[in-house]
C-alpha cells in the first residue's frame, strides 16, 4: 500500500460532484469544492488527524447514481460510513476505512474505467451496475464468495438461482444488490377522463373492454391504447376523422426501451442461437417489434421519435408528461416521476401487471450488482464498505431498486413511498404488483451475453431506432437486416 499524508478529513471524503438532469442517462462533472484535496486512490494509507486510514474508492457511473437526489444520498452514505469507522475501525489492518466516492458521467464511465484499469489505478467498488454495464469488462471483477466468507457475510440468504445468474463461468463476480421488475405504469386521471376501467393488478384478472371480459394481453392493450389516444379535436384513434398529425395524447409508451428488452416483453429469447455463434431473430421478438412499429405508424397510439422528444411529452419523459395513458417500464423509473411539461404533469398514477402474449406473461427484470475490481489493492476492506453500502435502504430506494432479501412490501412502504410522497401527496401505489412481476422474469436476461457484445448491441440498435423515426418499412426486411448485421459481428468476435 502507498502511504501519504493529508490534514483534512473532509477533503479526503470529498466527492467528484455532479450536476445532473433528473433521470438523464448522463451527468456533468463539476469541479471539486474550493479548498478540497484531490482524492486518494484505493489502497492508499493516509493520515488524518494523526490516525492512519486505508482508502477504499467507490466508482459510480456505469449504471444509476448520477441524479442529484441520488448523489445526496450517496454523500450521506459515505459520510455515515466514515464517521462510524472513526468510532469503531474495522479495517483489516486495524485502522479505519476511508470511503471515497468518485462519480463520473454515465456516457463516459466505460471509457474512464477502462483507462483506470489499464493504468493500474483501479477503483475498489464499482456500482451499482447492471448486466449491460459489466459486459465491457470480462474477467475484471473479483470473486465475491471468498471475500464474503472472510467477512462473515452470509450469502445463503440469497436465492441460489439469483447467485447463478450473477455468476460468470461459475464465479460470483457481482454482489447481489437490487432488482427492478417491469410493469405497466398508468395515469389514473386519463383513464378517469375517458371513463375506462384501470388495468388489472392481479395475474389472472380479466379486463372489461367494450362491455366484454377479455384477457389482459398485448392485443387488449393495443385496443385500449387506441381509445386513449386523442387528437386536438377530441377524437380518439378508433374514431373516423382522427388526425394523428395533431395528436395531444397517446395511449402507450415503451419508456426508454431498446430492442432486446422490448422483444422480451413478448417472450424470453436471444439473438444468439444455442450454438453460441449463429444470429437469429426469435418469433416473439418479431411480434413485439411489429406491435411497436404498427403502434406508431398505423394505429397511432405510440409517439414517434420526434413526438416523444417534444415538449408535449416532457422532452423525452412521456410517462411523466400527463399525456400518455400507459407505459411499460422498470421499477427504477420511480426516480424519474417528477418531470414537468408545459401543460400538465402526471399526478395520480398506479401500476398494473404486464400483459400476456400467446397466454404467457413475461416481465423483463433489471438487476443491479456491486462489483469489486479484481485489480483492487484492498479487496477485503472494499467488501466491508460494500456490505455497508448495500445495507442502506435509502440508497436502494433512491436508485428505484428493491432489495433481493427481506420484506419487500415493507421496503416499498418505508422507503419508496417516502421518496415519492413530496411529489405525489396522497397518491397510493399498489406495490404488490411489482413484487408479483418478479416471478415472471424471462429465462434469458434481455442483456445476456452475446459475441462481440458492444459492437453487436450497437448494430442491432441502429436498426431498432429506425422503427420510431422511419415509416413505410417492411418488417421482414428489418428482421433480416438485424440478423445480417449480427452474424457479421458474431463472425468477427475476438
Give a structural overview.
The chain has helices at residues 9-12, 68-87, 106-118, 131-134, 144-151, 160-165, 188-194, 218-227, 259-264, 283-297, 305-308, 379-391, 393-399, 408-420, 432-437, 453-465, 475-491, and strands at residues 3-5, 18-19, 28-29, 45-48, 51-60, 97-103, 125-129, 167-168, 171-172, 175-187, 207-209, 212-214, 230-231, 247-254, 324-330, 349-352, 356-357, 360-361, 365-372, 402-403. With 494 residues, the protein is α+β, with helices and mostly antiparallel strands. The two termini are 35 Å apart. The chain has a domain at 3-178 and 367-418: 3-Layer(aba) Sandwich (D-Maltodextrin-Binding Protein, domain 2). Strand 2 (18-19) and strand 3 (28-29) form a beta hairpin. Helix 5 (144-151) packs across helix 12, helix 13 (393-399) crosses helix 14 (408-420) and helix 16 runs antiparallel to helix 17 (475-491). It contains 17 helices and 20 strands. The strands form five sheets. Strands 1, 4, 5, 6, 7, 10, 13, 14, 15, 16, 19 and 20 form a twelve-stranded mixed β-sheet that branches.
Amino acid at each position: 500500500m502507498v502511504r501519504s499524508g493529508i490534514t483534512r478529513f473532509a477533503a479526503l471524503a470529498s466527492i467528484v460532484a455532479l450536476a445532473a438532469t433528473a433521470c438523464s442517462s448522463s451527468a456533468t462533472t463539476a469541479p471539486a469544492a474550493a479548498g478540497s484535496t484531490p482524492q486518494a486512490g484505493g489502497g492508499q494509507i493516509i493520515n488524518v488527524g494523526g490516525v492512519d486510514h486505508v482508502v477504499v474508492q467507490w466508482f459510480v457511473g456505469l449504471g444509476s447514481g448520477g441524479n442529484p437526489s441520488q448523489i445526496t444520498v450517496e454523500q450521506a452514505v459515505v459520510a455515515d460510513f466514515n464517521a462510524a469507522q472513526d468510532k469503531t475501525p474495522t479495517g483489516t489492518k486495524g485502522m479505519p476505512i476511508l470511503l471515497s466516492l468518485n462519480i463520473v458521467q454515465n456516457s463516459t464511465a466505460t471509457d474512464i474505467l477502462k483507462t483506470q484499469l489499464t493504468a493500474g489505478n483501479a477503483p475498489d467498488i464499482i456500482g451499482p451496475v447492471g448486466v449491460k454495464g459489466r459486459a465491457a469488462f470480462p474477467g475484471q471483477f473479483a470473486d465475491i464468495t471468498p471475500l464474503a466468507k472472510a467477512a462473515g457475510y452470509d450469502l445463503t440468504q440469497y436465492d441460489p438461482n439469483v447467485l447463478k445468474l450473477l455468476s460468470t463461468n461459475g464465479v460470483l463476480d457481482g454482489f447481489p444488490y437490487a432488482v427492478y421488475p417491469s410493469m405497466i405504469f398508468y395515469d389514473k386521471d386519463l383513464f378517469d377522463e375517458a371513463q375506462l376501467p384501470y388495468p388489472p393488478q392481479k395475474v389472472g384478472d380479466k379486463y372489461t373492454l367494450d362491455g366484454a371480459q377479455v384477457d389482459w394481453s398485448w392485443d387488449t392493450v393495443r385496443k385500449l391504447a387506441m381509445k386513449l389516444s386523442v387528437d386536438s379535436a377530441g377524437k380518439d384513434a378508433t374514431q373516423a376523422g382522427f388526425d394523428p398529425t395533431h395528436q395531444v395524447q397517446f395511449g402507450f409508451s415503451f419508456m426508454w426501451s431498446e430492442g432486446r428488452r422490448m422483444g422480451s416483453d413478448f417472450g424470453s429469447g436471444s439473438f444468439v442461437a444455442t450454438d453460441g455463434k449463429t444470429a437469429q431473430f426469435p418469433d416473439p421478438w418479431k411480434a413485439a417489434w411489429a406491435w411497436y412499429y404498427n403502434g406508431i405508424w398505423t394505429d397511432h397510439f405510440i409517439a414517434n421519435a420526434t413526438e416523444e422528444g417534444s415538449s408535449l411529452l416532457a422532452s423525452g419523459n412521456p410517462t411523466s408528461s400527463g399525456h400518455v395513458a400507459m407505459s411499460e417500464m422498470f421499477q427504477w423509473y420511480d426516480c424519474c416521476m417528477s418531470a414537468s411539461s408545459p401543460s400538465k404533469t402526471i399526478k395520480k398514477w398506479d401500476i398494473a401487471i404486464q400483459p400476456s402474449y400467446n397466454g404467457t406473461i413475461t416481465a423483463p427484470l433489471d438487476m443491479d450488482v456491486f462489483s469489486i475490481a479484481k485489480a483492487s489493492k484492498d479487496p477485503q476492506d472494499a467488501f466491508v464498505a460494500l456490505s455497508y453500502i448495500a445495507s442502506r435502504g435509502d440508497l436502494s430506494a433512491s436508485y428505484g431498486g428493491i432489495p433481493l432479501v427481506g420484506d419487500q412490501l415493507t421496503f416499498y412502504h418505508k422507503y419508496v413511498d417516502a421518496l415519492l410522497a413530496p411529489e405525489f401527496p396522497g397518491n397510493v401505489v399498489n406495490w404488490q404488483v411489482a413484487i408479483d412481476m418478479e416471478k415472471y422474469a424471462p429465462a434469458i436476461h434481455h442483456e445476456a451475453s452475446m459475441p462481440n457484445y458492444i459492437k453487436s448491441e450497437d448494430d442491432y440498435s441502429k436498426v431498432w431506432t429506425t422503427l420510431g423515426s422511419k415509416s413505410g418499412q417492411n418488417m421482414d426486411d428489418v428482421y433480416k437486416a438485424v440478423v445480417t448485421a449480427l452474424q457479421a459481428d458474431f463472425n468477427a468476435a475476438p
